[in-house]
Amino acid sequence: MHTQLGFKDEGTRNSLTDSAAWRTVMINKYVEQRFESAQADQNEKVGTVLEFRRKAGAVKNWFDVLKDPEMTEFMRTSLGVPSSVAGLDIDKQVELFKAKFDITKLQDPAELEKLERKYVAISDAQAGVNSASNVALTLMNAAVSAGAGGQFTPITLDISAVTSFRRSSY
């Protein structure tokens, strides 16, 4: 923060804070953070995905992931690693994550998108079908109410098949 605000070692201000480029960078960071926070307030999963996108570029190894609780939770969920793994020695955790995913793939936008889709799909599944925000359940209940059968039939979805569909551009 000291460096970003343009202070010298003695704590005095330098000319960096007077430049238009510095102000633009600070404003952009502020706007990005406010957007991310607003999205997280509306939907926690969306906020988590946006935070993951922002942080993923700086990840160099699994230790970078494991030192950040939000990144760890994101990767654990996306890769299907149980939370009980957190009790293991840090080196064992790194070995486990290495076996599941090559961390260098975080530099590939297509891999990021795959992880994001998996995270959302698995998080929704973990939230349970009784959640009021479950869109599939809402649609099925609407069909039942409209006289489309009167019974709820549970189904099984292949998450890997569902998440492999390409997302269309806007």
Quick structural summary:
InterPro entries: AGR-C-984p-like_sf, DUF1217. It comes from Limimaricola cinnabarinus LL-001. The chain is mostly helical.
Question: Layout of SSEs?
Answer:
Blueprint: H1 20-42, H2 44-56, H3 62-66, H4 69-79, H5 90-100, H6 109-127, H7 135-145, H8 159-163
Helix pairs in contact: 1-2, 2-6, 4-6
Structure overview:
The chain has 170 residues and is mostly helical. It has two domains: 42 residues, no CATH class; 107 residues, no CATH class. 58% of the residues lie in helices and 0% in strands. Helix 2 runs antiparallel to helix 6. The radius of gyration is 21 Å and the shape is globular. It starts with 19 loop residues before the first helix and ends in a 7-residue tail after the last helix.
Rg value = 21 Å
Count of individual domains = 2
Mean pLDDT: 75
Tally of helical segments: 8
String of helices and strands: HHHHHHHH
Note poorly predicted spans: none
Comma- or semicolon-separated keywords:
2 domains; 170 residues; 8 helices; mainly alpha; 0% strand; globular
